[in-house]
Amino acid sequence: MAPTAPTDSGPTSGLPAARLPLALRTSVGLAVIGVSASVCGATVVSIVLVLSGAPATAGQPGLVLGIAAGGYVILSAAAGTAWAVWLQRRAVHWLVVRRAPTVAEAHHALRLPADFARATGALWLIACVLLGGLAGLLVPGWRALDFGLAIALGGIATTAIGFLVSERVVRPVHAAMLHIVPPGSAGSATVRTRLVLTWLVASGLPLLAVLLVLALPRVNSAEPTVSLIFLAGIGLVVGAFATVVFARSVTAPLRGMRTALDLVARGRTDVRVSVEDSSEIGLLQRSVNDMVTGLREQERLRDLFGRHVGTDVAAEALEHGAQLAGDVRQATALFVDVVDSTALAYRIPPEEFVAKLNRFFAAVVDAVGAHGGLVNKFQGDAALCIFGAPNPLPDAETAALAAAREIRDAVRRTGELDLGIGVASGRVFAGRLGARERLEYTVIGDAVNEAARLTEKAKQVRGRILASDAVVSACTAQERADWEPYRSLRLRGRDERTQTWTARPATMAPHAQLETPPRPA
């Protein structure tokens, strides 16, 4: 049983498509099992009686018993077949009329092997009473007891084997029913029941047959070696058959679950095992599917969480839990804002404006992610990006400056929006802020404010980027070569003037040297 892709788990999702062939296969299978079980049981009885020497000592009455037993076998085979068909019709009639089964029909289908075994056992019990009673009238008492014990032995073997084999036949029907009622429902077979029946067929009945043959008076006066060897051979064959049936009923679903779990261990969460066993194995199959569903939901939430706050923030939150915590560290802030977004939103439809913003933010996310930064938040038509938090980033200044140039060039290529970018560096608080019921990962500090103020000034600069002297001084010489000093500016809210740098126009194509946009009226 190989794992499959996940499917809907509704009440009709597990119903088979080929309903009529399944109904016919189930009916014919149970009928064949009923006839075969009766014939095999009669054969077991005959062998035990022959090996015990019963026919030789029964005389003429033994012939009468043999004819009566043969007639009963024929009648019981017909009755058993009719009974099996009736049981099957009651359990899977919904397959023929092409509708969803009711809960009662689902329970009938799960009890089908047990009901079939009860029907078989009832027929053999009747045979034991009738033929045993007839033997008591025709032959001596000890010989009548032999006939009764042999019939009981055959009935037990037939009932046990019929139950084990019928479970294999109706398993496709069980797989459909287990979408209606859960595994382990009342009437469902358990692994212990199967194991006990397997032991009974493989060991218990052969040993009982040996004891029966040894206990009969006819054998006590003859050499029992041949009879015992023959019984041992029958026990080996029947026991091997029952063991194989039981082993397949256990190992097949276990292989499917192992394959599914191996795929899950390799990161796959799109697998599902077929729940087709009504015992504890079915409960285990269902638990595997529930586990995979939980992992899939957890992965989906992790993905959504990461998309909202960033994968690094999501990983840190999952590792440390939801708590108001953070630390102070050296980081570089990059703030990017669209020029005259209010006027643009007034001129074009809102859906077109949002589409432009999404393409703009996509360029921001790609450039910042490529250089190891974090897009901390989107603020309307602006974005705050952090380099060096929540995870330390070697040479965060160089990464931020390179990302700023890439964002500017990517937005310029689309020709849809104009922007300003500010880059500043310093010690900031990076952590979760808010209340226990509602947290947000954020970065607070003078560097963030400075980057936002530089962005306002950058909108009037030809290169559209302004970086503080602290950032450019800390970057690599290769990156610094693409920057040139701009001016010392007095930023809003700051007493001291800030020495700034801007990207060299040479880093841009000649047609890309943007001019200061006209101020809206």
Describe, in short, the structure shown.
The chain is of the alpha+beta class and 521 residues long. The chain has helices at residues 19-52, 54-58, 60-97, 103-110, 112-138, 141-169, 171-177, 191-215, 217-220, 225-265, 280-309, 311-320, 341-347, 350-370, 396-414, 446-458, 469-474, 477-480, and strands at 326-338, 374-379, 382-387, 419-435, 438-444, 465-468, 483-489, 498-503. It contains 18 helices and 8 strands.
Structure description:
Helices cover 63% and strands 13% of the residues. It is an alpha+beta fold. The protein has 2 domains: 19-250, no CATH class; 322-512, 2-Layer Sandwich (Alpha-Beta Plaits), CATH 3.30.70.1230. Strands 1, 2, 3, 4, 5, 6, 7 and 8 form an 8-stranded mixed sheet that branches. Helix 1 (19-52) runs antiparallel to helix 3 (60-97), helix 5 runs antiparallel to helix 6 and helix 6 (141-169) runs antiparallel to helix 8 (191-215). The two termini are 72 Å apart.
